[in-house]
Amino acid sequence: MKTKLAFSYRMSDTEKICYVTAEGRITLQSCVELMEASIKNPRTKPGYRVLVDLRKMKYEPEVREIGNLTSYVTAKKEFFTGKIALVTAGHRNRFIVDMFCFGAAMGGVNINRFSDMAEARKWLEESVNKKEITGK
User: What homologous superfamily is domain 6-125 in, according to CATH?
Assistant: First the structure.
């Protein structure tokens, strides 16, 4: 039996952070649907930072899918003007997210991958002076 994907997100207006959690099996289509829902949310404002917890997610894409998702995000980058921190676990998920982060950063998105939630929050709170990929 396949596990379905479950996304949840909440907006913190005081912190200007959107917290997203993904669990289960993810597809390219479900990623796009989540991003579209976020873009259409009237509470989403330019400059919001996004903290995405992917530690309970399973994703086994083809390389082409990662490229398609990267193209989608960079095409919509005016909606993703704040920092985006992705928290992952497991070697395979880290590798996939690193490829995605590299492509999105090359397209002008301020994005980074972390293994630790505290490190991700710390990075989100730093001023946005430079774009870098650290893969912490």
Answer: STAS domain (3.30.750.24)
Torsion over CA of 123, 132, 36 and 30, rounded to 10 degrees?
Answer: -90
Model-wide pTM > 0.85: no
CA 21 vs. chain centroid, Å, equals 10
pLDDT digits (tens, 9 = 90+) for 24-79: 887 777 778 877 877 787 777 777 888 989 888 877 767 778 888 888 889 888 88
20-36 b/e (C-beta count within 10 Å ≥ 16 → b): bbbbeebebebbeebbe
Query: Where in the chain are the domains?
Result: 6-125
Report the pLDDT value the prediction gives residue 121, as an integer from 0 to 100. Answer: 92
Contacts for 28 with CB less than 8 Å, ≥ 6 apart: 61, 65, 68, 69
Tokens of 136: 């912490």
Q: How far apart are CA 61 and CA 63, in angstroms?
A: 6
The rounded distance, in Å, linking the Cα atoms of 39 and 83 is 15
Residue bearing tokens 């907006």:
11
